[in-house]
Each structure stands twice: as C-alpha cells, then as structure tokens.
Design brief:
Number of helices: 8
CATH architecture of one domain: Orthogonal Bundle
Distance between the termini: 89 Å
Largest sheet: 2 strands, antiparallel
Strand order of the largest sheet: 1-2
Order of helices and strands: HHHHEEHHEEHH
Number of strands: 4
Radius of gyration: 27 Å
CATH superfamily of one domain: Winged helix-like DNA-binding domain superfamily/Winged helix DNA-binding domain
Amino acid sequence: MQLTILNRVERKSFEHMRCSVAQCLEIVGDWWTMLVVRDVFLGMKRFDELQAHLGIARNVLTQRLAKLVDAQVLEKQAYQTNPVRYEYVLTDKGRDLWPVLTTLRQWGDRHAAPHGPPVEVEHRACGQRSELVLICSHCGERVEQRDMRVHRKHAHAPTSTTTEPATALQPPEAQAAHQPRKKSAAASATRSKRTKHAARPEH
C-alpha cells in the first residue's frame, strides 16, 4: 500500500483571489468535502452514517463538517436531547451545489468510469433517465462553452457594469482574433529607414 504524506504539503488559500471558481474551491475544494455533500444529498445526515459510508477518519470528517457548517453549506439540527446529538442538513447555499455535484458526476461517467456509470439518474416528472444540460437563462437555448462570451468586471469597480472582454474561456480561434498583431522585424526596419530619410534636410 502506498502511503501519501499530507502534512508536508502546504495548502494554498484562494481567499484573496477575485474569482468565483476559486472562492467555491476555498469552501468545497478539500479532499472528502464534496463526497460529504454528496452523501448528505443522498440522505445520510448523521455523523455515524457518513463515517461508515465514506470510510473516512473521524477527525477528518469532524473537520470537514465543521467547515461546511461555518460556511453555511450545512446546518446542525438536534435530533436527540439526552445526550444531545446532531444531524446535518443542507441549507439553501448547500442545495445550490447540486448542479455542481451533478456536473462532476457526469464528467466522471464520461471520462473516469471505464466500466460504465455506477449510478443512473431518473427524472421523476417523466420517468426517463436523463442528464443535465446547460441552457441560456434568457432564450432557453442549449449552450456550450464555444457559444458563450465572457466579460470580466474591473477589479477597482466591483459594482460597475462596465466590462471588458476576457478570452480565456473562448475557443482558440476566437482568442487569436483578440491578440494584437506582431510587427515583423523587416517591416520595422523599413519604417525606420523611411523616417531617417524624411528627416534629412534638403541642400
């Protein structure tokens, strides 16, 4: 069995990074965290249930649950008074992670499940097995990455509606269109000669 030493790895905090993806990872990016959230979605709300299903060390589970409660992703609710015992339920903020969890599962089904998806999801309304797809909230059309244009808000004015195009999430051909054209060395040399010739006084 290969042992992994974790105490030598210093985790980088994304707290000061102005990026919504980074801020999401700041809360749920640790090992085990999304699996804890997954199991709570599946109805496992009590500490012993989570620990038994995940096979996680009790101290690690305690840390992950405490962090999720501090981040208001989970909420503790007492289900027993003598002694006091708690179960963990999803808040509105926690339930908003369901599309994230679903996208991770679908990615894993496509790219990391050589023997096929371990579970299938059925839409209760129609009774059919289905996958989630992204649609435009304005027109209802299905969208993919190449259909979207990203605009980055200026850091110095977070409430401003002024935006500038960001090409990081656009296809390569779209990114190329935004790149400044490089001047060739020959063109620069020709331009320099013309300037020197024009500057000579007439005799």
